[in-house]
Design brief:
Elements lengths: L6 E6 L20 E6 L28 E3 L4 E7 L11 H7 L2 H6 L2 H5 L1 E7 L2 E8 L11 E2 L4 E4 L11 E6 L9 E2 L13 E4 L7
Antiparallel strand pairs: 1-2, 1-11, 2-9, 3-8, 4-5, 4-7, 5-6, 6-9, 9-10
Amino acid sequence: MAYPFVGRWLVQNSPANRVPSHGTHAFATAYAIDFVPITEAGRTAPITPISLVRPEPADRFPGFGRPILAPVEGIVLAVHDSESDHPAYRGLPSIRYALTQRRRAAAGWASLAGNHVLIDSGGIVVALCHLQQGGIEVARGQQVRVGDMLARCGNSGNSTEPHLHVQAIDNLNIARANAVRLTFNGSLPTNGEVIRADEAPGAR
């Protein structure tokens, strides 16, 4: 796949560091990867005393609303855009939020993914998750090319701050699907690596 964004993004939960990357094989997430948008200076939203004790507005973070691009060519299989973007959680709020994760998992993959787009690329389904509500710009059945605008980065679903979750699976039934290994531009970045994409993939 191509990287589904431009600008600077920090790699987290990479399968290059451990498998399953998110600590579980549930919902075919064994090889999923997260990208956190950061500023040119390599930072997310500054931490303040308030950050440690209260939830923060998602739009305080530099990547909220940043464009998400198609990493593969294919057909849009599904679009989900009904989940609200909730506040971001750091410090003590993140601990309280983590305690509610089991409830979200019990509600199924869609509850964890939040707003998302699924693309069928040659029989492999690529999922892009935690998208901004109202920011999805494609529809089910639409053909997309690498670099096409899909959506905007949000903070929906199981997300403590705005970021993009990407995973690949072998069929649309996520409860029964197998995780598929993925690479970006022929390699797999590691945790803590900063990806800088200066041009949209497929740009002429």
